[in-house]
Recover the amino acids of this structure.
């Protein structure tokens, strides 16, 4: 029997860790990527990677707490067994990256230093300067290069994944890809295909993501029948630097070191911000949240900044939404010492010194919690069965998804520094199961008749040719992309309203219609970036639709998905009896909402390309969902009532079968 | 080699130029300013290169990437002809992926961090973009930097771990060692140092009609192996020779560095360090590598 051969699409953290592990286990790997893998988007991650460590352990931390923080932060929308397994693997993964040579910051004694990130009380985050993602990616890139020299890995850089190839039984047998230099097509027979192509920020036009994060590969798998989970959950970071080309991240630490957010009280005040007197400034976060000030939680900061610009019309600039983030009152020496790196980014790209002039910032799309639906096999201890071919497998046998492009680990909201972990974890952990799957597929893909691949090749060649001859159309793909991005940013990010979502859905359909009339300005067949972009734009519409439809249908607030019409306000009564009654009613409503909406959204691509949405129960068998009351008025009273109910349920022997907890769905 | 498609001239000076009528100034809002760029284009390897000029609406805080995005969107040259969009490489847009190196106003640098306002200060009337000259042009501003990554193979730029199973943490490392290593580890493989280096010369091979892909690959690799490895690879070799585990194959790296195309080719011109966008202390790495190579050569004589 021929050797198994695996095709990995994407060489970010997830794709590289899977490749390294597979090569080590003796499998021949083809690694396809739009850009040289060392230039993947993972290089952008600055903050760090989470895991329990010897220090936090002695302060009372453990893997269970990391698991619990993650599902609580994600508003309980993730299946719990995979998250538990990931938290358990955390320490091992950071140790491994340490051995691979990642220059983590050190304590005076030479141990790894750690910092604290949002959503936890422990210093769980290991970091390497201000470029942790880059350092992690490089160390995996180096190991994969080593395997390349050994002949175990073949890289196909500047190649575009176009479609998976399925056999008559519906099993994935490889893929069709295209060389972006010569524009040649090629079939890649494989016994399993792993998609590791990252996020889809380009759906929103500009974001904090890189230019290849266009979601095209995922969209193509979705059109071929793979399901997409939790598409409506998109994380928006409160502070990014608006740029004509990209929205660059401005780390939360700027506010941590005393940065104040404000807008002039006069809309679009033309004066130099330094000349605007205190009395004519609105420090709106400090005014609205006296207790937390500028350090309100991420989602609240995001919503308030968005609101003051869009609804109150107080954006600093007229043509561009932004507010001031002001550090000019902090001594220069402090700024240089504590924020040097990130202030340099601002200075480098804005050409303005933020130590002297207030920065202009605005929220930006940052992360997609949703992604390809993947399966898992639950173990008797509540984690996963290592080596099971079901782990990370999409609903198409033999087709896998890992990293930011799967929907598995972050639920309705991702905690900082958890993504790098989930990427490396899913990549390493899936490998033995993928191999088991290769062995179960019967005939090796290399032995398949070429007929299987020919029809895919012909379809893609035809699709490409049809685009090339469209030189006479009247639509410009770059303009259409901008319109799509503006629309999605306006209706499907921070605040969502049903009327707007419904209207936007219709508008996306009409943009897609207009896309069919796009003219390509380059009809050549050599390094034609124009036609590649136009193609990937076409693939954004199916994803945009499932994001909008998922958001439209989900009538609740959960994590990053916020609909003011369905928000659950706090309680305002002062009379103790009335207060109690309101708290009971609040908890009733919470439980009812959990029963109705604690479900994964699963989108399947219908025959006309429209998403068909269904809902699956979430496996909350390890810890029952509980309300997130952070900052809510009357939160203490609600918490009391909630605890009483939980205790009553426990006494009744029902600890894990509370009304809100569902039995394992897919596990 | 270089032909000009358009007539040059008619600079009206000043920066950036005011709206020409054919750009549809709508008359009532503030006049739109424009940025002029000239781009050295080439349709494919082996083809002649030629200049093409563009005029792009000025936006505050623009960088060269936003110019190129606009060039692609309008797909029209300054004299109004429809032209194919200019091809170029980019990804992160925050100077950390190393994709977007090009010659901007004659200097090798990253397009994403090249701000238009600053460039206009350098040359008020027109910004000039050219592909890197030390790598084969694929198309327009896109070059093939495969050789740069091959150099990393030559010096075995990795930590030779046994496997990826759990064996506990890596070695203890002092903060001084980490602070020494970290800057070297931030090399983004952009190739600026190679573009500027007088010892690093272009290797451009064309696949022969009768040559198989594998044969061509082998011929290319052999040519790369004979050429200078480059400052970036020397620096990476020093990074891994300074790591407690990486050091275990230090001799293999020194063998590579003292072989053909190794450290002895470096003329110490220090052009490399001056253009590195990440301010990597390349001269320090080169000096270290030189010393290590000498010591190692002497040791080899006595070991014989
Ligand atoms: C600015 C920023 C800062 C961040 N900071 C942190 C942090 O501090 N901590 C944290 O945990 N997370 C952070 N994140 C999130 C984290 O960086 C990403 O989620 C993670 O890097 C994604 O890795 P990946 O391997 O899934 O995909 P990526 O690194 O995005 O790689 C995708 C790969 O797929 C390839 N690809 C894509 N489409 C195709 C196609 N059609 N054909 C072929 N190949 C294709 C690409 O070429 C690339 O190689 C940050 C994100 C951003 C934007
Ligand atoms: S110092 Fe050496 S590597 Fe650097 S530019 Fe000069 S010759 Fe090239
Ligand atoms: S050493 Fe500097 S200039 Fe050379 S490739 Fe690395 S980052 Fe670029
Ligand atoms: S686009 Fe990444 S370095 Fe310029």
């Amino acid at each position: 029997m021929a050797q198994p051969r695996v095709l990995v699409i994407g060489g970010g953290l997830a794709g590289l860790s899977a490749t390294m592990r597979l090569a080590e286990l003796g499998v021949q790997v083809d690694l396809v990527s739009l850009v040289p893998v060392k230039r993947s988007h993972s290089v952008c991650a600055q903050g760090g990677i989470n895991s329990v460590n010897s220090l936090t352990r002695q302060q009372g931390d453990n893997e269970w707490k990391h698991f619990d923080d993650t599902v609580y932060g994600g508003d309980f929308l993730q299946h719990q067994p995979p998250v538990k397994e990931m938290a358990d693997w955390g320490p091992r993964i950071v140790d491994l990256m340490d051995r691979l040579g990642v220059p983590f910051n050190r304590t005076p004694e030479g141990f790894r230093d750690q910092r604290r990130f949002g959503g936890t009380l422990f210093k769980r985050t290991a970091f390497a300067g201000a470029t942790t993602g880059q350092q992690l990616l490089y160390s995996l890139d180096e190991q994969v290069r080593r395997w390349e020299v050994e002949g175990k890995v073949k890289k196909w850089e500047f190649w575009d994944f176009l479609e998976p190839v399925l056999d008559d039984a519906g099993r994935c047998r490889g893929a069709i890809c295209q060389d972006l230099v010569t524009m040649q097509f090629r079939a890649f027979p494989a016994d399993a295909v792993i998609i590791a192509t990252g996020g889809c920020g380009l759906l929103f036009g500009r974001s904090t993501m890189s230019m290849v994060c266009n979601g095209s590969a995922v969209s193509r798998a979705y059109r071929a029948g793979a399901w997409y989970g939790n598409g409506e959950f998109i994380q928006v970071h409160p502070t990014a630097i608006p740029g004509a080309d990209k929205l660059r991240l401005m780390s939360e630490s700027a506010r941590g070191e005393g940065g104040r957010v404000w807008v002039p009280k006069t809309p679009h005040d033309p004066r130099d911000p330094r000349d605007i007197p205190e009395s004519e400034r609105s420090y709106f976060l400090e005014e609205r949240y006296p207790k937390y000030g500028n350090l309100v939680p991420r989602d609240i900061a995001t919503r308030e900044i968005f609101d003051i610009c869009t609804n109150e019309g107080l954006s600093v600039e007229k043509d561009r939404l932004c507010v001031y983030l002001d550090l000019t009152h902090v001594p220069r020496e402090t700024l240089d010492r504590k924020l040097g790196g990130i202030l340099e980014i601002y200075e480098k790209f804005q050409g303005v010194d933020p130590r002297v002039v207030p920065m202009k910032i605005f929220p930006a799309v940052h992360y997609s919690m949703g992604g390809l639906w993947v399966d898992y096999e639950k173990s008797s201890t509540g984690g996963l069965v290592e080596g099971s071919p079901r782990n990370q497998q999409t609903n198409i046998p033999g087709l896998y998804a890992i990293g930011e492009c799967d929907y598995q680990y972050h639920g309705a909201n991702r905690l900082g520094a958890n993504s790098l972990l989930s990427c490396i974890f899913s990549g390493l952990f899936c490998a033995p199961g993928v191999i088991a799957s290769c062995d179960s597929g019967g005939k090796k893909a290399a032995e398949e008749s070429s007929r299987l691949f020919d029809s895919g090749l012909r379809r893609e060649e035809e699709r490409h040719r049809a685009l090339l001859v469209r030189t006479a159309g009247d639509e410009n793909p770059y303009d259409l992309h901008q319109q799509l991005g503006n629309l999605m940013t306006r209706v499907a990010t921070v605040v969502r309203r049903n009327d707007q979502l419904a209207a936007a859905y219709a508008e996306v359909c009409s943009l897609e219609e207009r896309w069919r009339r796009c003219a390509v300005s380059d009809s050549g067949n050599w390094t034609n970036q124009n036609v590649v972009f136009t193609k990937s734009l076409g693939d954004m519409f199916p994803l945009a639709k499932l994001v909008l439809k998922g958001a439209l249908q989900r009538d609740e607030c959960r994590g990053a998905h916020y609909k003011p019409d369905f928000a659950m306000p706090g309680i305002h009564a002062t009379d103790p009896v009335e207060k109690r009654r309101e708290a009971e009613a609040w908890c009733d409503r919470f439980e009812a909402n959990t029963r109705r909406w604690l479900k994964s959204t699963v989108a399947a691509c219908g025959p006309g390309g429209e998403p068909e949405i269904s809902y699956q129960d979430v496996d909350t068998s390890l810890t029952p969902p509980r309300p997130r009351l952070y900052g809510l008025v009357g939160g203490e009273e609600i918490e009391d009532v909630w605890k009483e109910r939980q205790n009553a349920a426990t006494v009744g022997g029902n600890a894990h079968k509370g009304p809100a907890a569902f039995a394992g769905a897919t596990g | 080699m270089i032909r000009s498609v358009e007539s040059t001239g008619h600079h009206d000076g000043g920066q950036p130029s005011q709206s020409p009528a054919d750009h549809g100034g709508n008359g009532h809002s503030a006049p739109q300013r424009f940025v002029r760029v000239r781009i050295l284009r080439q349709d494919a390897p082996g083809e002649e290169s030629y200049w093409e000029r563009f005029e792009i609406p000025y936006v505050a805080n623009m960088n060269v990437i936003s110019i190129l995005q606009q060039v692609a969107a309008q797909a029209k040259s300054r004299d109004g002809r429809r032209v194919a969009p200019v091809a170029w490489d980019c990804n992160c847009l925050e100077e950390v992926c190393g994709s977007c190196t090009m010659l901007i106003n004659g200097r090798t640098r990253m397009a994403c961090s090249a701000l238009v306002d600053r460039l206009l200060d350098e040359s008020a009337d027109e910004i000039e973009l050219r592909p890197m000259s030390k790598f084969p042009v694929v198309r327009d501003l896109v070059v093939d930097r495969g050789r740069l990554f091959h150099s990393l193979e030559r010096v075995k730029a990795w930590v030779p771990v046994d496997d990826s199973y759990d064996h506990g943490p890596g070695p203890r490392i002092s903060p001084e060692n980490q602070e020494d290593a970290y800057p070297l580890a931030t090399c983004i493989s952009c190739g600026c140092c190679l573009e500027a280096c007088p010892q690093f010369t272009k290797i451009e091979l064309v696949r022969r009609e009768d040559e198989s892909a594998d044969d061509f690959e082998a011929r290319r690799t052999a040519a790369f192996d004979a050429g200078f490895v480059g400052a970036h690879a020397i620096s990476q070799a020093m990074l891994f020779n300074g790591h407690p585990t990486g050091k275990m194959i230090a001799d293999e790296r020194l063998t590579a560095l003292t072989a053909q195309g190794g450290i002895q080719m470096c003329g110490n011109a220090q052009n490399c360090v001056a253009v590195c966008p990440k301010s990597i202390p390349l001269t320090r790495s080169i000096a270290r590598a030189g010393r290590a190579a000498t010591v190692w050569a002497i040791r080899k004589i006595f070991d014989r």
